[in-house]
Queue: 3 jobs
Job 1
Amino acid sequence: MAFKMPTGGGGSSSGSSGGDRTTFVGVIVPRAIKNLPKYIAALPESNEVFKSILNVVVASFEGEELGDDCAVTDLCLSSSFHLYLAISGIFSCSAHQLKYLRSHAMIGLSSLVTKEVSEELLHHVFAGLHALLTAALRHPPKSFKKQHFADDLHALGLETKQATEISKVVYGAKRASIEDTHDKNAIKLPQLADFKWRVDVAISTSELQRVMKPAVLMQMTLSDGTIQTFEMPVEQFHKLRYNTAFVLKEMEDLEKRGILQQP
């Protein structure tokens, strides 16, 4: 099936939106996003199919459970779906996220297949929109102006009617539920729940009758319940104390940089 290139409100597919400013996707535009305008142009001129695909993408971000009894196992293994995974670079996501993407892509998009709209075309649009929203949602809305976002979408080749719908997701009420789902499913390291320490003095050893050397014994309890116990000489404790203070100072200096300041 031949896809026609977009005309009208589209623009360049490079990572620059004019001047020296780089678009929100970065200098190198992912292939799924770069090819998105031509696949959207192959959809029906009414914006309804595009909106339906966008809703499926948003549902996958929100992580709605569809249940394991859905008859999509064979469909999930289809060659076109694996093509979608490959072009969108989603092979690196977690198994939990992949389950959502499989179920929502196959169930949500299957009802949109017609003689004019192929399953392959739907997967390409789904892949591009998923990659686009993934890049957009990384930026806090307060630090990224809505007009700049719209300009970037136009620079990437999207027309105004599609840019408007995508902006509603990034700056609308749906964003809160997407971020809540991300926080719940994000992989997190255990945090420090409790910390105890004491100073022990070795009076003597099997080799020396008089040592009188202090050592610091530390016990850390993590949020997952594990307990880590270790001992170090006073000299090593001072190095740990210095390096910890040094890292905290570096973090404070980094947070003061203008690029990290919210307007």
Note: The two ends are 47 Å apart (CA to CA).
Job 2
Amino acid sequence: AQAILSQAARYPTGRSSWHPHSFSPSLMAAVDIKVELNPKDDVALRDDKSEKSTRRGWGLTCRRRAARDVEECEPAGYSSLVLQGRSIAASKDQALYQSMAWWSRAESFGGARVFVLAPRGPDGNLEYNVHMQKLLAYVVSQMHEHVVEQAKPYAVVWLQLGDHRISLLSSLIFSRSLHSSFSKNLEAAHVVHPSWGLRFMRLAIWPFAGEELWERFHSHERLQFLEPYMSVATLALPKDIFQYDEFLDKDAERMLDEAAGSSAPPEA
């Protein structure tokens, strides 16, 4: 508004001495202008949708443009990703992928529906070679209706089981192929049993990342640390996930005992 008034002050105070076309294009683009002129003034007005002009009384009012809604964006390749995932869901491998990715009965305490991702082989085989590109395509196809079509909030629990199974480059390429609704409607991502790679990544970005990232990106060493955010019992986790959690506890106890034994003074 101050910029407009300063430009208007450069002209004489006569009623028809200036009009909205006198303003610079950059200024006109920054604000919406409403100009009211006396009916007796002979001022030519353009028929331009970017300007709102009437011929009633003398006056000048300015208002900022209303903030635009975030435009939903569907990158090239997203549709093919969904179709690939749906073809997997209709194939003989459906049961395998259902055991690695599913909508749980849980809702976060913030009201977001929770999706679980647990890449591993049949019977909890951690050595199984998971095709992550196919798995992520399946994940997108399962989440599409809730996240994109219904535009509802969601949270993700990613059970890494000590292995993230995807390179940084591949994860960046995948993220760029996602519909913008996945970012817009994400409440939080919770990584459980994080890999060492993820631990180092979080440590590396800690000095630079803002609070918004840490509010939406959590890492938990054990399942019990999910409890402040959601009920673990409603995640419908298979038995092998809990067994892995117990294995980590026992392994941690063993290492503590070994460390205590090595630090004990030798007997006389």
Note: Confidence is low (pLDDT under 50) at residues 1-70.
Job 3
Amino acid sequence: LENTTMKLILAASLVAGASALQMPLAGKVGASRVSAPVKLDRRGMLAGVAAALVAAPALAEYTVPDLPYDYEALEPYIDAATMRFHHDKHHAAYVANVNKALVGKSEKSILDLQKDAIAAGPAVRNSGGGHYNHAMFWEEMGAPTGKGPSGELAAKIDEAFGSFDKFKEEFSAKSAGRFGSGWCWLGVKADGKLAIDTTPNQDNPLMDGGCETKMIPILGLDVWEHAYYLKYQNRRPEYISGFFNVINWEKVASNYAQYASKGVGIPF
């Protein structure tokens, strides 16, 4: 995860080996072939190192995904100013910190990182979770359309909660009731049924020990104050109510049908 460190290691190896380099020298036609050491001067060694640094493959780092809409797209329910600093500053900080925490570690997708994130320590738990959670959060929202869930997802919501209105009531109550900072989730349990639960801080249901209800999340609501305080101050219930106007239910349905219904987490 640390490109510069890895390249310097490679460069050091090249310099160390360069002085011992030997190449065969051919004599005239019919003459025997002899080998003699070829001495590389400093310029030659540096040129070889530079070429190796350019050619060395870059190691993967997590990056902040672009928003799939303009900052203003969620107005009037989520304001552009909040979207700018939430995405550009808060999410960027999670990405920078998890990249730093994973220097020298084996590479994993951000989805694969979630399972053992708590055991991996606070930096991976908080920043790795923060990256995954926010990647889902941006994707599940969109410009207000007035549409709700439909098709198979709507049927699963009715089955689990009795109706869409009852689902909204339970999701809203649990989101408002999460003490301090955290998230509220709609997810798919191992038996295929939908459930709602909350997690503290940047934990999520994919983490071992991260959520009381073991499930694959398909919809998450960020209830950290930084997600709403500029517009709503301490009025979290108003923010939650507004959130339902910007849910992209087609994306949530895709999260369910393509991944969670098959027991697979949503990749980002």
Note: Residues 1-38, 49-58 have pLDDT under 50 and may be disordered.
